[in-house]
Q: What sequence folds into this?
């Protein structure tokens, strides 16, 4: 039997897009090569804003934009960022077509928008970030890690 214990690292409210990006930046500064960050939350919750900050925290200078039409955008750096948007995926088997397993092995950080679409894709030590809208400019961000 596998025991997976989810530890909440942080719960915080943000009041602007910039504050959400700052939360992403703080997390990004702590990540090692191979880290997987699964993002959950509705349209406009702030997943891309958070990832923009994550990239800054990794030291990536290229500005992050939404990969909605490409599924994955790659940003080179000391630790590269692979930024996925699974919104358009029809089913999990399409992960094979985009080379998901290779991305996990490439020594970058993977950040995944619409992780709800691919619940079976994630390694056990994935960091889970949920963004919830609680008003026009307020977002609650919950960051969890798993120990197994
Ligand atoms: N506290 C906040 N944090 C993040 N974004 C906020 C906040 N308050 C307002 N916003 C607005 O919400 C929107 C968030 O957009 P963003 O593209 O990051 O969302 P998303 O979760 O990636 O959406 P999608 O599912 O379409 O990819 C932006 O327009 C931003 O200005
Ligand atoms: Mg987005």
A:
């Amino acid at each position: 039997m596998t025991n997976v214990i989810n530890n909440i690292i942080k719960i915080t409210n943000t009041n602007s897009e910039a504050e959400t990006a700052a939360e992403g930046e703080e997390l990004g500064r702590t990540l090692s090569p191979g880290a997987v960050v699964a993002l959950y939350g509705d349209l406009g919750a702030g997943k891309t804003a958070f990832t923009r900050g994550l990239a800054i925290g990794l030291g990536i200078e290229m500005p992050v934009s939404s990969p909605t039409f490409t599924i994955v955008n790659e940003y080179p750096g000391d630790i590269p960022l692979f930024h996925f948007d699974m919104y358009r995926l029809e089913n999990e088997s399409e992960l094979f077509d985009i080379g998901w397993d290779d991305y996990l092995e490439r020594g970058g950080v993977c950040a995944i928008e619409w992780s709800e679409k691919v619940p079976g894709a994630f390694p056990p030590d994935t960091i889970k970030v949920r963004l919830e809208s609680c008003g026009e400019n307020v977002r609650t961000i919950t960051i969890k890690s798993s120990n197994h």
Remarks:
- The two ends are 11 Å apart (CA to CA).
- Residues 4 and 148 are 5 Å apart (CA to CA).
